[in-house]
Amino acid sequence: LSPDLPxxxxxxxxxxxxxxxxxxxxxxxxxxxxxxxxxxxTPAVSPRSPRSPRSPRxxxxxxxxxxxxxPAKITSQxxxxxxxxxxxxxxxxxxxxxxxxxEMDAMLKAVQALxxxxxxxxxxxxxxxxxxxxxxxxxxxxxxxxxEETIYFPWVKSRCSEEDYPEKTTEDHETLVAELDxxxxxxxxxxxxxxxxxxxxxxxxxxxxxxxxxxxxxxEHMSAHLKEEETLFPxxxxxxFTFEEEERTVNRILKEGGLTQARLFxxxxxxxx
Length: 273
Prior knowledge:
Blueprint: H1 10-18, E1 36-38, E2 42-45, H2 88-113, H3 123-157, H4 168-192, H5 203-240, H6 243-271
Antiparallel strand pairs: 1-2
Helix pairs in contact: 2-3, 2-5, 2-6, 3-4, 3-6, 4-5
């Protein structure tokens, strides 16, 4: 991460992750290169000029990798050794998506460990999980989708033709938000200890069993959605926008979220790096 992180503002910190160095000999971009660290500090994405085109393929047809990417450390289903992330257009979606995938992986492990038949004295484990879901994960995913719909996607649409724009991503958001809200309702019932029989049979035990059913399904659908965005949007960014324009849009998102959202979403981003 940026060595000046403690003194940096939130926007400056994110900029430090996305921009470092520059095209050799280019005074205008010497300090504006993409740098992302993932998986315990292992460099996953390192300097590359924001104005550079996609990297050339080698003799075997595989993409050369000027970003020094280690795909095994990235949870994305899109990027592999044969198709590593190449530039800021790829990294733009990897930064929030890697954080969300790491959170979903932790969520799956946690909910799998919950026992519907747990005793009352061990119910604190389920309640702690519910508190994290309601006050962290739920808020982060809702906010991520909201800023995409109100800031990022309208910005993309400003230059992308209607026929080229992947409208299905917005439709997916509606489905995913409905699933999030369904899980939130179950989580709230477990937290309060009030589980109406008309909504969930079996009381708190039935609600925990329902979580163990609903959360894996949500993670599967959300993972497919993130994969689709990482596939469809980078070519659009590459064709219509510059790094500097995208950075201004990201800074708008950071400003709207403020310190409250930074407190919730920066920790998962850092842990994914």
